[in-house]
Amino acid sequence: MGKKGLLIHYDYCTGCHTCEVACKQEHGYPAGRWGIMVKDCTRESVDKVEVDFLPFPTDLCDLCAGRTQAGEKPACVKHCMSACISYGDVSELARAMEETPKSVLFAPR
Ligand code: SF4
Ligand code: SF4
Fold first, then answer.
1. Is 106 helix (H, G, I), strand (E, B) or coil?
2. Which domains does the chain have, with CATH numbers?
3. With helix as H, strand as E and coil as C, how does 50-104 read?
4. Closest C-alpha residue for ligand 2 atom 3
5. CB of 38 closer than 6 A to ligand 2?
6. Which ligand is nearest the CA of 4, by number?
7. Beta carbon of 19 within 6 Å of any ligand 1 atom
8. Looking at the CA of 34, which ligand is closest?
9. What is the pLDDT of residues 73-105, one digit of tens each?
10. Rounded to the nearest 5°, which phi and psi values hold at 86?
């Protein structure tokens, strides 16, 4: 079985923070601790302002080991309404990444 990870298509992220809440509820993290955090990246030019939202897992992310061992999707994957987080084998996610602009691959230890 290959190493598992998350592929995040942040081009489609709306910045709704649902993944943060779902992760927190799943793990019961206290205030100030997060398994995933969503950052705003703002770029300003003369005629426009562009905002990207970039969700990134932290060291607390265990890829929802309890859920995935039971055959369920990680909490953030299940609850993201934009379907921009995928869970699976890192090698397969890396192949999918080649077709996907604005994406990041997360693979914990
Ligand atoms: S739940 Fe999905 S759309 Fe919402 S902030 Fe997280 S990754 Fe972005
Ligand atoms: S995979 Fe699980 S632990 Fe990791 S960020 Fe998503 S909800 Fe949190």
1. strand
2. 4-106 (3.30.70.20)
3. EEEEEEEECCCCCCCHHHHHCCCCCHHHHHCCCCCEEEEEHHHHHHHHCCCCCEE
4. 61
5. no
6. 2
7. yes
8. 2
9. 999 999 999 999 999 999 999 999 999 888 999
10. -120, 145
Question: Is the pLDDT assigned to residue 1 strictly greater than 80?
Answer: no
Q: What is the pTM of this model?
A: 0.92
Distance 1 CA to ligand 1 centre (A): 28
Average pLDDT over the chain reads: 94
What is the C-alpha separation between 84 and 81, in angstroms, rounded? 8
Tell me the C-alpha distance between 36 and 19, whole Å: 7
Using the structure block, give the residue that is written with the tokens 């955090």.
Answer: 37
